[in-house]
Design a protein that fits this description.
The chain is α/β, with parallel strands linked by helices. The chain has two domains: about 40-45 and about 60-135 and about 255-375, 3-Layer(aba) Sandwich (D-Maltodextrin-Binding Protein, domain 2), CATH 3.40.190; about 140-245, D-Maltodextrin-Binding Protein, domain 2, CATH 3.40.190. It contains 13 helices and 14 strands. α4 (about 165-175) crosses α7. The chain is globular, with a radius of gyration of 21 Å. It starts with about 50 loop residues before the first strand and ends in a 17-residue tail after the last helix.
Amino acid sequence: MKKTYLLAAAALASTLVSCGQTSSSSQLSSMNGGMSVSSETSVPSSTSEEESSSGQSSEVQESEISVVSPEGAPSYALGNYYHDHPSRVTVGAPATIVRPAIFNGTADVVIFDAANTAKLMKGGKVTDYNFARLLTGGNIYLVKTGNDEDSTVDADDSVVSFGTGSIFTSVFKAVENYAGTITEVADAAAAISIAATGLNEGNKVDYVLVAEPTLTAFIKNGKVKKENVMYRLNDKWEEYTKEKGMNSGKGYSYFLQAGVFVKKESEQDEGKKKAIDAFLKSVDAAAKDFATNDGAVTMGRILSDVQMGLYGEVSNPVETTKVFGVAYAAVKNAVTESKNGFGQKNALGFLEGAVDVNSFLNDTKSLLGYPAFDEANLSSFYTAA
């Protein structure tokens, strides 16, 4: 259900869309601490000029843009941008909020499943957007339930993933050479619940692909045993692709998850283009912060905004759930290496910088089945590594 929060005189409550939320649905895959907020959190701005009819230069004014994102991990990269533009951000469930936006062209910027959108674009089902960024590259983990006595993935074992045609399901099949049938449940919240109980609709499940930050949350509350976390899928994938000689023998440490898509029409509007540029710079800074610094600056700003009441009730971090679909504490624990239960750095899978997505897609097409983006569908904001 879409929720919209409008800025009032003093406070505001916000809007809805990841991977791994703890309290609401998502297909992409979900305390305190009083970190100071440095000047680095301010969103960089660029100035462009145009000649006025009088012959004098005038600054292009930044227009309002709308941003739609799935709930959970990717949405926390919007923390800095939300600080300055809370009324421009909508976060919600992929099926009911994000998917309609990217199919119908109703937002200037949409964060969505990058690999499946490439396939949709190739099939002519998504026509209004260009690809601008890969935001996350893997926050998926394999958890055993204890039902399989030998703890070895075999074709007769029952495996559960989430989403529809998710790239990480294909990655798992490849690295495990798994020939069995994988059941895909709706979202990360459903998957982690199955990992906790070992049951899916009354049937025993042996292994479950789950996402952060819900994994750390369930380890913290004792519903999932830390020793049942078998591996991070990225690690197996990198090892596998190295053995296959992919990426000039270096392998791939990532796979495509959340991507940033820019509306073509908006990219041609100078005022909106300026706003999109500012948005992307803000998101890039947050992604790098999460990838290299446990998100300290971004999470510090979000906590500061919580204390000021930007998310709802003053000084209540749980209020971030209303905006991002996952609580501050769950994300904070997941991104802090010493707190996520198994010493995993960058558990949410944010990327530090640009990657060449088409090289990845071309290199893995026969294995994973996702086509590369047409050049016409690459935004002017896109830069390959």
